[in-house]
Write a structure and sequence with these properties.
Length: 171
């Protein structure tokens, strides 16, 4: 398991519930921690896209650029953006810190963070693998899985299967 971290990405952005916040703007820091599965056997090599810092930064920058009333929306968009871009993420943590928030009294910063884990086990052989738990999961994007999807889902309670087990079903 490797951790890819980008910390203290600084942006001047125009988020905020009040109109004046979206006019004046403010300073934000964003931290992203991504853990990736280095166990290639559990993934197909051709599907795994390399996670690189530049792409992660560009995703964060694009979402910070869109003014939003709620920081929760920005946080969710960053998480989804990173998740959709890469298919080999085991865990993801994103933190948005607002510097000098407009409050009574002196407050250095306020922050919002969320973390998600995508580690699971193959429904058939219990080998460790990654599942995004939705239509974006790599297993749902292979032709093989589409063909046998109904059958396999029924047999294994809708759980993800590893590449080896999917190959077994391709017969
Ligand atoms: Zn398996
Ligand atoms: Zn899956």
């Amino acid at each position: 398991m490797a951790i890819i971290a980008l910390e203290g990405m600084k942006f001047y952005a125009y988020h905020g519930y009040y109109a004046e916040e979206r006019v004046i703007g403010g300073e934000y820091l964003v931290d992203v921690d991504i853990s990736t599965n280095t166990n290639k056997a559990a993934m197909s090599d051709e599907l795994a896209k390399t996670i690189n810092y530049e792409t992660v930064y560009l995703i964060v920058e694009a979402e910070m650029r869109k003014p939003s009333k709620l920081l929760e929306q920005v946080l969710l968009r960053i998480i989804m953006g990173i998740k959709y871009q890469f298919d080999n993420i085991a865990g993801l943590e994103v933190k948005i810190t607002k510097l000098n928030p407009p409050m009574q009294g002196q407050v250095a910063s306020s922050s919002l963070s969320d973390s998600q884990s995508f580690k699971t086990k193959c429904g058939r052989c219990s080998r460790g693998l990654l599942c995004y738990g939705d239509a974006t999961c790599w297993c749902n994007t292979t032709e093989l899985y589409t063909k046998t999807q109904e059958n396999v889902k029924e047999q294994f309670g809708g759980r993800c299967l590893c590449k080896n087990c999917l190959n077994f079903f391709s017969g």
